[in-house]
Amino acid sequence: MFSKYYLCFTLLLSGPLLAEQQPAGKKDIENALVALPDTCVALREGRNCFAEVDLTWHQQQVGNYCLRNAQSKHIIQCWLMQQKGLFRYQFDSAETIGFELISSDNGKVVASTEIQLQWVYQNRQKKRRWRLF
To answer: Model-level pTM greater than 0.85?
Structure first.
């Protein structure tokens, strides 16, 4: 019984020590752009998929950032003097859509993500044979 308490006590004391031994890069949150959910499921191939997607981003430095469509380069939303942000996107597409977070100060892409499409049923064309009788 004493050994159980001793084990719990040593684990409690060693927990903070183990946490501090992580590399310095692991403690900082990396630059990121995340789409949740990152996959939209439609019933049949070729049909539009509809979903509400949260696009969240975080940067190490405060700055001016814009979210844009990766294919069309259309600006969706901008934030001034921010380090993180959230945009709720109404996904309505029959194909995968990519997104980029750019620094509006210099125009460089700092993070990117995409929303994938999947289908429950794929279109399989049956061979139709013509018959006269």
So the answer is: no
